[in-house]
Amino acid sequence: xxxxxxxxxxxxxxxxxxxxxxxxxxxxxxxxxxxxxxxxxxxxxxxxxxxxxxxxxxxxxxxxxxxxxxxxxxxxxxxxxxxxxxxxxxxxxxxxxxxxxxxxxxxxxxxxxxxxxxxxxxxxxxxxxxxxxxxxxxxxxxxxxxxxxxxxxxxxxxxxxxxxxxxxxxxxxxxxxxxxxxxxxxxxxxxxxxxxx
Length: 197
Prior knowledge:
The chain has one helix spanning 2-16, and strands at residues 19-35, 50-69, 72-83, 86-100, 108-119, 129-132, 135-146, 152-173, 176-196. It is mostly beta strands and 197 residues long. It has a single domain, classed as Porin (Beta Barrel). The protein has an 8-stranded antiparallel beta barrel. A hairpin with a 5-residue loop joins strand 7 and strand 8. The longest helix is centred in the N-terminal third of the chain and has 15 residues, at 2-16. The radius of gyration is 22 Å and the shape is elongated. 21% of the residues are buried.
């Protein structure tokens, strides 16, 4: 009897606050810096020169949470973002909100916001380099297209800010080395397509 009551409470929670998973795959558009000169073997540090170029990068995110009311879901977003040779794994608190729906069962204007920290768990640094993650913020707006089975197709457009720090140590000999620190603020426009279960 006690076990039955515990199960009723468990399923009663998810009946009141339905579980939701939103998985999205997409691309981010922006500009990257890249180093244009080599470091020469010298006791005098050489300036590091950079140029920028347009880049299209891969992004994959999954949101898992609960609907606290029929229009609003809160939860945790985990993702993978590539920036050239760097792969960051952001973990964020997220909110999804149905903004406008003209008719029952029709398309829904959807707003979302993720705020968190990008980790380097999936990143592998080159020798002499060390990458650190940082703040990530991603507001988006888009459309949700409900299906008869209760799922929905998603299409979102938004802005993504992600911070990362790079440290490079150069060794000339056993008595001399230099270290350079660089902070990059990645600013990207994102387009994502996915499905809600």
